[in-house]
Amino acid sequence: MSNRALLEVIALDVEDAVAAQAGGADRLELVTDMAADGLTPSREAFAAIRAAVDIPLRVMLRRTDGFAAGPAGAVARLVESARELRAEGAEEFVLGFLNPDGSPDLAAVEAVVAELDGCRWTFHRAIDRAADRDGLRKALADLPGLDTYLTAGSAGGVDEGLSVLVAEAARGGEPGYGARILVGGGLTLAHLPLLRSAGIDAFHIGGAARPSGWSRPVSTPAVAEWREALG
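-> structure tokens emitted (231 positions)
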């Protein structure tokens, strides 16, 4: 098995997806509305992107800005979105919900994960807002399909979270630490040597794939620069 690192790129539409794949992305995170940090895309958007590229797609399940799942009705709508996306062929997802006190909202997470029926999924940067990262990891450890944490190590981004990321990577064999660390959130090329030397092998970019800003599509050369840096 190769030690090629995984490069995941945020895609909003078909143009982004095609450009990211052309640049060497291994996987896409599909979202809409980056003004709200990324919400669930429509079934139609997913279908169009699925038809345009052949790399894996992880689809965001999130209805509101912030990390609260919302009231019971909102959770039911998330479950419905998951059902519709799976019917369209989605096989991988991204989600994560916290209670107001910073503990994981297990009721919401479990309701959505039950609908995923074993599909693989990422718990996203809600972990960086958790009151107790270690406690969150242990509370979620046995949920089916959880194979990745998207994290900067800190709510403030990778610059502030480097020591946490390195420490968590070193705990790989412990209960709650079996999921892959996918680093994202203010990630720059300058961070890669330290993270790679710590054994981290998965990286997530959004703004870094768009040198002209979020109003412009993904840049194939920008993604290719990351692909080359990661080997």
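Strands lie at 6-11, 27-30, 57-60, 92-95, 120-123, 146-151, 180-183, 202-205.
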